[in-house]
Amino acid sequence: MEVQATLNELKRHATKTVRDGMARYGLPNEHAFGVSVGDIQRVAKGIGKDHALAQALWKSGWYEARMLAGYVDDPAKVTAAQMDRWCRDFDNWGICDTLCFVLFDKTKHAWGRVDAWARRRDEYVKRAAFALLWGLTVHDKEADDSRFLKGLKLIDRAATDERHYVKKAVDMALRAIGKRNAALHAAAIAEAKRLAASSSDPARWIGGHALRELVSRAPRRGRA
Hints:
The relative contact order is 0.08. The protein has two domains: 1-73, no CATH class; 92-224, Serine Threonine Protein Phosphatase 5, Tetratricopeptide repeat (Alpha Horseshoe). The termini are far apart. The model has no long low-confidence stretch (mean pLDDT 95). The protein has helices at residues 2-12, 16-21, 37-47, 51-60, 63-72, 80-89, 93-102, 110-118, 123-139, 145-158, 164-178, 182-196, 201-214. Helix content is 68%, strand content 0%. It has 224 residues and is mainly α. The chain is globular.
């Protein structure tokens, strides 16, 4: 009953305009109500943290319910097995990035999943590795530079993947690492230059795009 009541609350915020607009951003709307992210966040605020409800919302399969699951789940109760299971269900960038930014990067399993998922072939699982790495540059205040230097090695290996959603996430992760502090800024610029000189088209695109931003902007944060 709680799950159905939550789904009904999401439906109450749905509009045809939002649902129709999803396709313009590459988001499937066949199993979506048409609820804005802002309204999903407001529903989540009214619920608070509820691990059991999050599991049920995820199983419902609705786009907005899965988005909401990311906001209401408790990072302390999320297991690595759950992360792997949910990640295998990713079928669009919106769910992938949201779960990585609002839930997964706050769990104790986050760094292990970056390494594991970066080695996977599935497009959205691999994207999740670099979306999660991106999120960790912002939310893991305690991580030392060595973790992000290892992340640059994962970026180097993944940069030849020409699939759109992987390539974009690799680029975003590279730029995010370079914004963390001065030392990582220099390391990210060096990596971007290597990629820009590559014989691989995707790697050159990633390197060139990241380099343009990194050389024009100093890191926004000091050392973590």
